[in-house]
Input
Amino acid sequence: MSHVTSAVRTPLVTGGKTYADVTEDISRQVEGKPTREWTIAFTIAVVVLIYGAACVFWTWWEGLGVWGLNKTVGWAWDITNFVWWVGIGHAGTLISAILLLFRQKWRTAVNRAAEAMTIFAVICAASFILMHMGRPWLALWALPLPNTFGSLWVNFKSPLVWDVFAISTYFTVSLVFWYMGLLPDLATIRDRARSKVSRYIYGAFSLGWNGSAKTWARYEYISLILAGLSTPLVLSVHTIVSFDFATSVIPGWHTTIFPPYFVAGAIFSGFAMVQNLVLIIRVVFKLEDYITVEHIESMNKVITLTGSIVGVAYLTEFFIAWYSGVEFESYAFINRATGPYWWAYAAMMTCNVISPQLFWSRAIRRSVVWTFTLSVIVNIGMWFERFVIIVTSLHRDYLPSSWAMFHPTLFDISDYIFSFGLFFTLFLLFSKFLPVVNMAEVKTVIKSSSEKLPASVSGVAKGERVTSPTFNKNID
Amino acid sequence: MSDVHSNSKFLVGIYDDDDVVLQAVKDVRKAGVKIHEVYSPFPIHGLDVALGHPRTKLGIAAFLFGLTGTLTAISLTFYTEGYDWPMIVGGKDSYSPIIYIPIFFELTVLFSALGMVATFLLSNGLGPTVKPLMYDLRTTDNKFAMTIDMSKNDIGEGDIESILKRSGAAEVNIKQF
Output
């Protein structure tokens, strides 16, 4: 089988890396002692997590009254944060599943970190479900179990129950997909391990992987099928999250474009979060040769596309609110843009619609500083989007005597901070103890997409492609 | 994992390149040597075909597990909402399959994915307590190993070694289990 390198394609792996270099560069941070930066970051994350956990505990102990909710706005930051985190959790599976089906090879360098991010983001999202249940020990009531009061079951017609199924399936399948991808790399680390303890631990988690041709063939096959299953799954998750709103009769929620609009927004914010994490990883772990400006640019293109879809959705909503002739609907949208929460609406419009359009400029798209800044802005904007949809639709009830405002309390804010502590604690643990780049997959693109250094720089063997195997073809 | 008997003697040809090992598999087989297996740090397309491994049936497993999931979802929703405690919510029929499509879909995907992965692990003999038979530790890094089970071959050791060398093997080692 021959690998053909296109002359016009820019390389995915720079620096003329060999297979051994890939192993060495990526295993290094797993095998070495934690760096000072990592230790500082981890300490901060854990402190934030402990503070947040204490606040979450108090929220449960005292009751949801510690939040700024009132009779009119009965659903605010808790569900905003939930939708925001679930949305962020869409990029990982999109990268690993949809881009696998589309044979986008650049995914190989970023899929591991993005999938890890997905799993941790879904965990954060789930923590808000548990939080806003108020009595988390009754969470199992959401499952279809025969209950003790008779044979009343969960209401399968409710999108909230669909959500239970969608989120738990998504979490499980993403975790399995991620773990399957980790097996070969865990085996690599097991076989390099010097200490008995790490050989034992990585050995157990690598499940006895030995890289035989038969295993690889089956592995490739299940990866493809998992990708095929995950592709509709990832689209279904935010579709179902959007049903939580769209199946209600609240003006501003009762909209048929919610599913595609939410999915686009989810991918948009997810990629922005991947950018933030990956830009830090590549500098801290010195992986600039693997996660190149090409990768960053590709992801920025996805951000521009999905950001534009979101922009079109905003405008469509507005148009339909007027065109439908439903006065409650029109009022809800005019109130969003010009009412007391106009600033949230303006923040959403600026961050989500205008800022990603800057990526039409090649220089901005390829700039690390711009990418990082705009990605943060996009995620701020996407948080405001959910806040605008949820709070502005609720705070003006049908009866003006019920109109109210929502003011977050310390516990609204602290419970949100908790999720950051949780997310970064998990992500930092991942980045220390597991290879952040999929070594086996990067090795598969080395020949076709690696930068060839001139022989004078690299020596003949390094990064060179073996064009004519040096053996006699007529063995007998 | 393949059938490895105790006291089996293996010749292990170590290759440096995936294209070389793929061609070598074809050549070594043509020379009449029975190859036990090839170990590589990453998947090599076409290697399983070159080795003559049968096509995997994991797709059938995935389908059957998925079907189980769909049927589970149908029975679950039908039993609870249509038979055991019918409820009319939002003016919808107590059992209208359309409204349960999200449940059908999610359980199909869940069963299919978990069932297929479990089948994959079982069929490859993978598990947390499994000690892999590594013919060469470098095959999870940058080397490719072709293993020849001597008990399954009639050709002499020296001849096989020279066939492996001629096919591009950088070194040929002996491994005994």
Observations:
- Chain B has two domains: 9-56+134-176, 63-123.
- The beta strands of chain B are 9-15, 37-39, 144-149, 171-176.
- DSSP finds five helices and four strands in chain B.
- Residues 136 and 145 of chain B are 7 Å apart (CA to CA).
